[in-house]
Structure formats: structure tokens, C-alpha cells
């Protein structure tokens, strides 16, 4: 009985780390990313709600960046372009363009992951904002005047999801580890650029964009892992059907 149980546990563990299994390595990694991102988000959200020291850092950094933003017109204008490109209309347009590109490459499952991730994540973020109802940074001479809530950063969530899906797709088709590392670094750089633009322009606090990244990673793990599992199950059913003939 003990040997049978041990054997079953061994097979279960091996299956969870197998790249070929329907519920293998991709699902294990997806669940791990989801749990870590949720834990990080919950930690930041709790500190924001309870007025922990991170909120004091938020204020100091926001005031310091606001002074520098008024002193550097060229950088401010560049980051205004970045933040407008990653606004809701901009992200929907980029998502539509990327979805069309994925369909052209016969990557319909990845197109489904992109559509579920970006628009779905943006709607989730609206619900999060109304849950926490955190006011945005306030300045006497604001660069941006926004009436929506601040926590978490919607721009950062959308960028994390959009560039995250593209990075996942491109790394699967890259032929070397060097190219994969370059793709991941480029995606991370774009997310940091968008998050930095929101901080620099006084639209968000540091904790807002950090929470946005974690929220995006959690939703990204759900969407990419879910669609990947769906694709593997369909392939497995097709393989069983073919073997019956």
C-alpha cells in the first residue's frame, strides 16, 4: 500500500514538471507565478490601506519627481507620449494590431490569450480601483489632472499584460537563450518605462505601479496558463481521435 502511494506521488510529481503533459510544467509555473504575485499584491495593498511606511515613501518620491518634471520639458514631453500611447484607447489599438498579427501567424490561441489578458485585465483593474478608492497624488500645479482612482496603476497593468503576452509568445519561438533573454529584458524595459512615466508625470504613487505590475503578472499567469492548457487538451483529444482510426 505504501509503495503504491509512493509510486502515485512520484508519478504525480513527475507529471507536474513534464513539458509535454496537459497539466505539466506550464501549469506548475503558472500557479507559482500566480501565488507569488497575489502574495506580493496583498502585501502592498495591506500596507497602503494601513498607512505603512511605504506610503511615506510614496509621498516623498512623488514630490521629488514633480519638481524635476517641471524642470525638464523635453523628458516630460517624451513621457507624455509614452503614457498616451498606453492609455485605454492606445492599449486597445495596440491589442487589436497585435491580435491581427498573431492571427496572420496562425497563432489563434495566443490571440485568445492576448484578448483575455489585456481588455480583461483592464476591466479587472477598474474593479480594483473602486475597491481601494485611493486618491491620486495632489499638486498645486499638476501636469495631469485625473478624476479616477490611483491604486493600482491601470497603465502599468495593461503594459504588463500586453508586453507579457508578446514576450511569452516570442520566447517560445526564439531559437537561443540569448534571444529569449533579450525578449524578456525588452518587455520588462517597456513595462518599467510606462510605470516610470506615470510616476514622473504625477499620476501615481510608487506603490500604485508596483501593485499594477503584480496584478498584471497574476492575471497574465491565469490567461496564458489557461489558454496553454486549453490548447494542449485540444491537441490531446485530436491525437486520441486520430489514433482510433
Name some characteristics of this structure.
245 residues; mainly alpha; 0% strand
Helix content: over 70%
The assigned structural class equals: mainly alpha
Shape verdict: globular
Number of discrete domains: 1
Sheet with the most strands, sense and barrel status: none
**Number of E strands:** 0
Query: What order do the helices and strands follow?
Result: HHHHHHHHH
Helices, by number, come to 9
Low-pLDDT parts are none
Q: Return Rg in Å.
A: 21 Å
- Sheet-strand content, in percent, reads under 5%
Q: Report how far apart the termini are.
A: 38 Å
Average pLDDT across residues? 85
Outline the fold blueprint:
Blueprint: H1 2-16, H2 25-49, H3 53-71, H4 73-85, H5 88-104, H6 108-132, H7 154-173, H8 177-200, H9 206-243
Helix pairs in contact: 2-9, 4-8, 5-6, 5-7, 6-7, 6-9, 7-8, 7-9, 8-9
Notes on the protein architecture:
The protein is mostly helical. The protein has one domain (25-231). The chain has 9 helices and no strands. The chain has helices at 2-16, 25-49, 53-71, 73-85, 88-104, 108-132, 154-173, 177-200, 206-243. Helix 7 (154-173) packs parallel to helix 9 (206-243).
Quick summary:
The chain is an all-alpha fold.
Amino acid at each position: 500500500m505504501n509503495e503504491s502511494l509512493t509510486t502515485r506521488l512520484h508519478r504525480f510529481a513527475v507529471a507536474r514538471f513534464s513539458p509535454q503533459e496537459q497539466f505539466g510544467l506550464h501549469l506548475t509555473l503558472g500557479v507559482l507565478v500566480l501565488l507569488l504575485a497575489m502574495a506580493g499584491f496583498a502585501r502592498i495593498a495591506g500596507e497602503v490601506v494601513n498607512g505603512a511606511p511605504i506610503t511615506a515613501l510614496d509621498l516623498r518620491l512623488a514630490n521629488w519627481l514633480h519638481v524635476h518634471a517641471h524642470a525638464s520639458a523635453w523628458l516630460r514631453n517624451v513621457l507624455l507620449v509614452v503614457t498616451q500611447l498606453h492609455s485605454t484607447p492606445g492599449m486597445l489599438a495596440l491589442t487589436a494590431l497585435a491580435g491581427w498579427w498573431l492571427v496572420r501567424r496562425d497563432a489563434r490561441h495566443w490571440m485568445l490569450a492576448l484578448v483575455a489578458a489585456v481588455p480583461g485585465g483592464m476591466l479587472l483593474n477598474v474593479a480594483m480601483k473602486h475597491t481601494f478608492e485611493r486618491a491620486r497624488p495632489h499638486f498645486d500645479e499638476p501636469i495631469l489632472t485625473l478624476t479616477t482612482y490611483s491604486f493600482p496603476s491601470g497603465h502599468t497593468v495593461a503594459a504588463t499584460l500586453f508586453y507579457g503576452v508578446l514576450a511569452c509568445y516570442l520566447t517560445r519561438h526564439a531559437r537561443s537563450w540569448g534571444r529569449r533573454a533579450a525578449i524578456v529584458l525588452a518587455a520588462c524595459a517597456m513595462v518599467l518605462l510606462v510605470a516610470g512615466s506615470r510616476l514622473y508625470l504625477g499620476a501615481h504613487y510608487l506603490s500604485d505601479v508596483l501593485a499594477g505590475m503584480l496584478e498584471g503578472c497574476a492575471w497574465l499567469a491565469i490567461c496564458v496558463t489557461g489558454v496553454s492548457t486549453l490548447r494542449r487538451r485540444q491537441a490531446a483529444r485530436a491525437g486520441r481521435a486520430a489514433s482510433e482510426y
